[in-house]
Design a protein that fits this description.
The protein has 161 residues and is mainly beta. Helix content is 8%, strand content 65%. It has a single domain, classed as SO1590-like (AOC barrel-like, Beta Barrel). The chain has one helix at residues 5-17; strands at 24-41, 48-59, 65-75, 78-88, 94-107, 113-126, 133-145, 148-159. β2 (48-59) and β3 (65-75) form a beta hairpin. The two termini are 38 Å apart.
């Protein structure tokens, strides 16, 4: 005779554990404006510059706001970017996050440069509902005017383990 007790216990454990592993998707589109920026030349290569800036973004769908503190390490407009941000939701909850990515600048047919960036982000803390959540995802950003860009980001969150 086979003892089914341990097998049944394992099945029940998995059945109740799986929902806690579920992830929720979320994201938005934002308009960002550069509030302040400083470019620091690096003399090792032609066109090498370190750009430190602060941007503020407004979510076009939900009305939340974001502030990003950004560092760009660029050579002739191409390179890497990284930084930290704070998302303030309309209910007052805060999501703190870090991000990193790649910046690409191309010259268009009109001769004007076009800059875009993309990368990944992850939560580093939060308040309210974000206090007990972990989140991560991807983002894309494109400059549309001087000191103005459009960004799309998406990701998933789950309850902290």
């Amino acid at each position: 005779m086979v003892n089914r007790g341990p097998v049944l216990a394992a099945v029940l454990l998995l059945a109740f554990a799986v929902p806690t592993l579920a992830q929720e998707k979320f994201g938005d589109k934002r308009v960002y404006h550069t509030i302040k920026s400083e470019a620091i030349p690096i003399a090792d290569k032609e066109g090498h510059v370190l750009v430190v800036s602060e941007t503020r973004g407004y979510d076009l769908q939900r009305g939340s706001n974001a502030v990003n503190r950004v560092v760009g390490d660029l050579i002739k407009g191409n390179g890497r970017t990284f930084g930290y941000g704070t998302l303030t939701e309309t209910d007052g909850d805060l999501l703190y996050y870090s991000f990193e990515g790649k910046v690409t600048t191309l010259t268009g047919s009109t001769g004007k440069p076009s800059t875009s960036a993309e990368g990944t982000w992850m939560s580093t803390g939060g308040t309210g509902k974000w206090k007990d959540r972990e989140a991560r995802g991807t983002w894309k950003n494109a400059t549309v005017a001087p000191d103005t860009s459009l960004a799309e980001w998406e990701g998933t969150w789950q309850l902290k383990k």
